[in-house]
Amino acid sequence: MIQHLIVLPVVVPLIAGILLLYQRQGMVRYKRIVSVVATSALLLVAIGLLNQAASGEVTYYALGDWQPPFGIALVLDRLSALMLLVTALLAVGAVVFACGGDDEKGSNFHGLFQWQLMGINGAFLTGDLFNLFVFFEVLLLASYALLLHGGGKARIQSSVHYVVLNLAGSSLFLIGVGILYGATGTLNMADMASRMAELPAEREGLVVAGALMLLVVFGLKAAILPLYFWLPRAYASAPAPVAALFAVMTKVGIYAILRVYSLVFGDQAGNLEALEQPWVWWLSLATLAAAGIGVMAARDLRLLIAYLVLISVGTLLAGVGMRSPEATSALLYYLIHTTLITGGLFLLAEMIGLQRGKPGTRLVKGRPMVQGSALALAFFIGAIAVAGLPPLSGAFGKALMLNAAEGSQRLWLWTLVLLAGLASLIALSRAGSTLFWRSHRGHLSGRPLPRCQWFGMAWLLSSSLLLVVFAGPVSDYTQAAAKQLANPSLVIDTLINDAGGTQ
Amino acid sequence: MTLLWIALLPLLGVLVPALNAQRSRMVCSLATALLPAIALLLTLMQIPALLEGEALRFAVGWLPELNLELALRLDGLSLLFNILIMGIGLLILLYAHFYLASDEPVGRFYAFLMLFMASMVGISMSDNLILLWLFWELTSLSSFLLIGFWSHQSDARKGARMALTVTGAGGLALLAGLLLLGDMAGSFSMGDVLASSDRIIADSRYPLMLGLVLLGAFTKSAQFPFHFWLPHAMAAPTPVSAYLHSATMVKAGIFLMARLHPAIADSELWTVVVSLVGTATLLYGAWFALFKTDLKGILAFSTVSHLGLITVLLGIGSPMAVLAALFHILNHATFKAALFMSAGIIDHETGTRELKQLGGLKKAMPVTALLTTLAAAAMAGVPLFNGFLSKEMFFTETLKTPVLGGLSWLLPALATLGGILSVAYSLRLVHAVFFKPAREAPPKSPHEPPHLMRLPVEILVVLCVVIGLLPALTATHLLDLATQAVLQRPLDFKLAIWHGVNLPLMMSVAALLIGTVLYWRHRDMRLFTRQFESVDARRVFERFVVAIGYRAEQFLAAFEGNSLQRYMTLLLSAAFVMGLIGLVQVTDLTGAAGNQPIDGVVILGAVMLIFGGIATAATHRYRLISLLMLSIVGLFVALTFARFSAPDLALTQLSVEVVTMILLMLALFFLPQKTPQESSPLRNVRDILLAGSLGLVIASLNYAVLTRETLSISSFFVENSKPGGGGYNVVNVILVDFRGFDTLGEITVLALAGLAIFKLLNRLRLFIPHSDGEGRVWSPDRYPAILTSVSMTILPLALLVSAFIFLRGHNQPGGGFIAGLITAVALILLYMARGVEWAQERLDFPFQPVAIMGVAVATLTGLGSWLFGYPFLTSSFGYFTLPVVGEFELATALLFDLGVYLAVVGATLMILANLGKVTTAHRPVPEQTEKDAETSSNPTSKEPR
Amino acid sequence: MLSIALYITLALVVMALLMNLYRLTIGPDLPDRVLALDTMYVNSIALIVLLGLWLNSKTYFESALLIAMLGFISTVAVCKYILRGDIIE
Amino acid sequence: MIRSRAWLPTPVFSLLLLFVWLLLVRSVAPGHIVLGGALAIIIPLLTNRFWDARPRIKKPLLLLRFVLRVLGDIITANFEVAYLIANPWRKLNPHFVEYPLMLEERFTITLLASTISLTPGTVSANLRMDGKSLLIHALNETDEEALIEQIRERYERPLKEIYEC
Amino acid sequence: MSLWVEAFISLLLITGGAFVFVGSLGMAHLRDFYMRLHGPTKATTLGIGCMLVASMAYFWSIDGRPDIQELLITLFLFITAPVSAHLLAKTGLHLRLKHIDITQGKPVELRSEEVGKKPVPHPDKGHG
Amino acid sequence: MELLYAITTGVLTASGLYLTLRGRTFPVVVGLTLLSYAVNLFLFSMGGLTTDGAALVNEGDGFADPLPQALVLTAIVIGFAMTAFVVILAMRARSEVGNDHVDGKKEDRE
Ligand code: NA
Ligand code: NA
Q: Cα separation of B172 and A93, whole Å?
């Protein structure tokens, strides 16, 4: 089994999905158990893989026993192992939360959730550009279905934008992959990277066009500035556990940018090295600015969190845009933090909304809540973490990001990150004081929330503290991951040169 | 290790009240006090070591990437502050025990207070810039909680938010400043930083860094013009004000300036900026303190003023000035905390803090009156009190400052003015509250507080007096250590009450005299001041925040606009720009391979496709016609695939095309039949240009690739298809073997589409049109008889063809996907021809399990290879011989393809049949919650498939 | 001889397809267009058969079979749509 | 749910399917006969429930004659129609004819309607919902009665004999 | 391949092509929908049939073994073409498409007096 | 021939894109379908245009590049799934909002 560990992050949710989806209705307990067990198993697998990747060796799994570049290979390095772990951690929180009742609001929740995980994990693992497309589609379609879970006008309407844009994006993806295949003759990213070294000059333009088309697609998924518009409403209207899981969806786009451009357009690519860099850098800053404004404007807690997600996107992409191992390491730390925390905040928002009853998560006066103190404490922790204030992980992440900037980058990054942080601070203090302090007198509103919800939310938010306590080991890992990423020849050697090219 | 405990104990102390919140208040208070008391004791136990000149340090690694260590130091400065923080903290605890009403959540209050104390201790002991910043921001947060403690009051909420915003913003600036500073010094370790003054000041980024750091310090210490949050923070319970706004938090900024003094203060820029800001603050605060009518307001502004004083001293920066600053820090903490607590007692006992409701309290509260008077005297700088000593040192230093050159008289003059105002407001405070008769009756009839509540005040006042009388005995060692820490070298000084008759003494005397007169005449000046009072900082701030929110909303509405058309335009424009950038780098559009000769059939295909495409777009307002045009494209795309040697694709495209048509028509039934003319001609032109440009870019890229030699890995597939994959049809072998993983994902997508669509069809409210787009009533003939009989004939044939296509796929064009679609389409034909009711009776299997079963079969086939020790999805095949039948091939790929087949049939039917059924009695029922489904024992006949 | 015949037939089929396109474009009514499309499907079977003869290959037989089958179903669906709107009821 | 018990409900039809299978696979190898035979049994079993009334061929020989006649008619008719269409000077006399049906089974009516559509100058345009008459459009016909008579004698009666009597 | 076979195949092909052409020609130039329907239904079907037979003959003569696979397509076409035509005609009648004036006989569907001007919802159609 | 092919792809892409820029859901869906046809043609051609030689190893010896064909096959299926979803979403959106505008805001003008 151990030699198959790499494929398990795809296979486990796939099988769980099959078990869960075979029967559409009924068997609530069974489904919950299967789903939670599968997700926990996924977490164990992810830990195992992280352990494996921590050795510093790049390993791969040749599906169908067809060696790269001919077959599809799953590639495990520090980065992909980290992304898997983050996803699994997030998923455990979300799925347990969903067992508190959200899963019953429509059909097939758990099955779709598992398949969404399958798509995300596949995207993180695959070393093949077209296979990445396939997993993107898996995770997108699952996300469409989950977004609609429970129905409602707002969800439908935001879905229309989300779906149509992503469909157009998928077409662009195919065009980009097509051009790259036409220009290089391969789909395996490592192979493509190795072919960059002796790319004929007459093909350079084609490769640029293909790569930049892909950048548009990844930018769309990651929600970079001119392409982010689908995000706020979609995230704000999604059911809580789904929105929580969505916290990792933008990271898939960011991951893809990080992976594709650092590998294929690494130092071996000559003229084409870092061709995405200026675009990512400047647009990420613009994203930060827009997201900061969005945070100030949001009149609903969910929308506010959605814009906070966008701030994290801007910050992370700025890290990508700096394209140095320091920045990559910093952004990976920040990525763990922001994914788990924004996920937890979406869960928390749902809990607050449930207890407040009619006003929901809108930032207006409401009646005091039955479990107001506990929720307030959770909100305070989450807000501190997400706003980047000490003593939680956000502060570390932000400090790492700022510290990683060099020279003139500082002026822009520091200004924008700090201003966005201030905007978050103002908005969150306003939101918190409205939700918890500015209440009508009168009866307490809401029923006590299910334990599952508390657990799911606390699971995610508590990660912030762990990230602080274990900041050293975590950052050691991210630093090593960043170094690995900065050295594409590792992957190329493992997959292409050492594998010998034949089975 | 002791250092770690000193820092850690207050932090652990946060948990104590939280855990003891349910017990009696006495237990809770005592338990809370325990840990900080130990920490204070531990701190004091370090004094001997410090006096011997030991450097007390503690460090463990934390986040090496950020150069962050859990590094603590205890030097004189930390010692001074630790004593203030924990000493006064304990007194505050005692005071708060009595101050808070019995129904208030004291546990929470203590927890917040301890959190604050811990973060202050952290600031004071940090030996690492980043660590310092962490604690710094933590004080902002905990003070936010404390100020907002009475959250039901709007004042408290707003005051808390304002304080958080201002100090938080300053904290962010400070982070930037400290990062810069660390970068300039080459280390974040305090020791290194303090030793790199030359490097730092020589660095070109020094002014920027200084600005950022001072921004942090000034906002925290309420320096002009960032002072405005402090008076509004008075909405906090008085123990909080006494603690945060006299002794600790506001001193954090001062502490920072003192701490970093050796590293960054040795420049003119520092002196000018810091002393100017300090002076402005000194005067501004004093002036407004004189006219406030709220007891705590007076104290708040006086605090602002005194903080300004300390800042001026730090700005001057001479050794003696530093000494004076440190001394005044100590003194101010004692008398101001005492005054705040007295104010709290008065408020507590009378129910008001408004001066006009107070007066003549010396009768009811003689002891409090005495204590307050003494503390106020210290504040005013009356001789024999500690305030006098430090203030006189301040005057002395202002006289020595060299920076302002010709204007060197200005600073002493302004300092004297500050002294005058300080005397006046101190006098006013005491006189108005205790001696003057009240104009209105207070809400409660006042009496002395419980003795223990007064005890902290008494202790502090005694300290004021003792230090005032015996400075050399009480404060010298402490100040000596602190000054050494700030100056990084010993300073020879002597504290004394009497320095002889000199200019500073004159200034003090003048301040006392003129201040008294000023109080006498302060009513006149109040009229003058009134005109400024309309500017209420909080209201301005609130309005500012609201305005920003509003502007942000407006901006977003305009910028984002909730318009898909805009988003699409942006997406396509981005794609266009990106493609174009690549395209312009393609030197020679026509590559070496060039064009193949053209023939008539290809021209026909191109004409059909081009025409079909344009016609689809051109007729889009007449939707059905547009669909028919789309059909041309679909058909000719299939023919194109056939023409260019891709039979599998041709088959797939054909079947998908038909299914798509059916699907689009099923949906179109529920949509308007025509699209209204909405777009302006300009917009149309713009859209055509955009679409056309991107089309052109894509065509050019396509052409560029097509005219270049192909360099593909594909020969591997051709060579290994039969020997390795057991099939002659390379495309199929790629699909089920070489890249079977893609196919597995693909059928998952298909099944997901079915599931997602099922969700969409749930609780769907339908607009069922009663007539077509032209208003014609539908034909009454639901199931044309001729169609029904033909569909009967076609079904078995179609199934046979489907089986044929499926089985031969591995070697000839075909395969599970196409076979599945054929089956599904044939079944859909039945639905069309015979109706749902009829078909439902005969097709009584649910679709979802079929689709999922398909995925399961494919997955299990893939997993099977594990049994033989091969990776997931490894295929195998073999040739077998049976009697009669002869030799035949069996391949696991066929099983995999069976999975594909099932998934396609199931998913396609889930999509089409469910969509078709929405108009019938068999429509997907409004989704029950799973609970309902479990409890209801009889599944209804309307169960959706 | 055969290749000449093939050319002639091809020319005839191409012209037939162009006439289908003509009718599909000008209509005037929906059934005309549907008829034209249906005919186009059938005529493209001819194209496929000719392609098979041209390339001397039976690889495209199934394509022709499928066009015959699916073209019909597609026409049925459109007719049902025009007649009833609801094609599955 | 409608089930059929017999394992081979329609032997003739199964034979037809086997024939089609062999056509498809272009082989009469034993393996394909076995496989085709299996399919020819399974598929009718699966689809049997979709036949509400399975028509029975009473007179197979007559059917064969009928088929040949229709094929002949199709060929001649097509030359005729081709001539009508291709000659631009020829004036056409289109005609709608309501044809009263003698047949009662839906399947046989379908056969008749198809035959009419495939043969000279006529297209069956609408089967009335009551199944009593069929609307026919003739491309060039002046004598309504003659047309009805011709169809009746040439196609409808034989069909009636083959299937329904 | 013998000359006769080749000639036969060529003849079949050209005949088929001609029928296909004529069928579409009729569809293109006849004057009303009901008349246009005739061409594709008959001529085109036969034309394709001819070409399929040609194809069968060709591959039979090439491979040297009977190859009548294409019969299946012909079978399909002969089953489906009249049904398509029938449905199309029905559709035309439903939409009350005009026929040219010289047409004799007036089917119920096309008599204007039978149906009122305002659409009346069909009794079958409920609100779903 | 390559030029003609590329022009065709370009025109189809442009037509599809034009439709995706419309303000009503159905034309957008049709546009996406058209776009996916165009993209499939594009992707297909990335292995070059081979006029005779399907990738069947037991017939003939000229081979079309089978890899893009397999990719396009996958893309066709996925495209179909996506089209199906989006068109039903459009329908659902109309039933929720009352009109078929892509932003669901304008009044139905029919
Ligand atoms: Na195949
Ligand atoms: Na329907």
A: 31
How far is C4 from chain B, CA to nearest CA, in Å? 14
The CA-atom distances, in angstroms, between D146 and each of B387, D97, D151, D152, E97 are 131, 11, 9, 10, 27
Token pair of B865 as six digits: 């290879």
CB-based contact A156 F92, cutoff 8 Å = yes
Reported as type and span, the H/E element at residue B413 is: helix B410-430
Q: Minimal Cα distance from B923: which residue of E?
A: E128
Q: Token digits for A173? A: 């993806």
Chain E residue numbers touching C6 (CB-CB < 8 A): 13
Residues in E closer than 8 angstroms to B918, CB to CB, are: 128
Convert the pLDDT of each residue in B201-251 to its tens digit: 999 999 999 999 999 999 999 888 888 888 888 888 989 988 988 778 888
Q: What is the pTM of this model?
A: 0.93
Give the model confidence (pLDDT) of D47-87 as tens digits: 888 777 666 778 888 889 999 999 898 888 888 888 888 88
Q: Dump pLDDT digits (tens) for B176-194.
A: 999 999 999 999 999 999 9
Distance B917 CA to ligand 2 centre (A): 5
- In the DSSP assignment, the letter for residue E122 is -
Contact B553 A299 (CB under 8 A): yes
- What are the helix (H) ranges across A298-392? 301-322, 325-356, 372-387
Closest ligand to Cα B806: 1
* Residue B835 burial (CB count, 10 A): 17
Residue recorded with tokens 């008075």: B234
Ligand lying nearest the CA atom of residue B815: 1
Cβ pair B334, B464 in contact under 8 A: yes
CB-based burial, B134-170: b 16+ in 10 Å, e otherwise? bbbbbbbbbbbbbbbbbbeeeebbbbbbbbbbbbbbb
Q: Regarding beta strands D122-127 and B68-74, do their DSSP bridges make them parallel or antiparallel, or are they unpaired?
A: unpaired
**Using the beta-carbon criterion (under 8 Å), do F39 and A141 form an inter-chain contact?**
no
Residue pairs spanning A and F at CB distance below 8 A: 82
CA A33 vs CA A19, A28, A45, A98, B929: distances in Å: 11, 9, 18, 12, 18
**Which chain A residue shows the shortest CA-CA distance from F95?**
A153
- Residue A63 · residue A73 · CB < 8 Å: yes
Q: Contact A295/A431 with Cβ under 8 angstroms? A: no
Chains F and E touch (3+ CB pairs under 8 A): no
Q: Which residues of E touch D81 (CB under 8 A)?
A: 22, 26, 38-39, 42-43
Q: How many helices (H) and strands (E) does chain B have?
A: 42, 4
8 A C-beta contact, residue B381 and residue B392: yes
* Second-level CATH architecture of C1-88: Orthogonal Bundle (1.10)
Asked if A205 contacts A182 with a C-beta cutoff of 8 angstroms, the reply is no
CA distance E30 to chain C (A): 11
- Distance between CA atoms of D8 and D42, rounded to whole angstroms? 9
Burial-class residue B860 by CB neighbours within 10 Å (0-12, 13-18, 19+): middle
What residue of B is the nearest CA neighbor of D14?
Answer: B796
Asked if this assembly's ipTM is beyond 0.90, the reply is yes
- Which residues of B fall within a CB distance of 8 Å from E119? 770-771, 775-777
d(CA C67, CA B237): 84
Q: Strands (DSSP E) along D16-127, which ranges?
A: 95-100, 122-127
Average pLDDT over residues A320-332: 95
Domain ranges of chain C: 1-88
Helix, strand or coil for residue B888? strand
Which residues does chain E have within 8 Å of residue B779's beta carbon, measured at their own beta carbons? 90, 94
Backbone angles phi, psi at B535, to 5 degrees: -85, 95
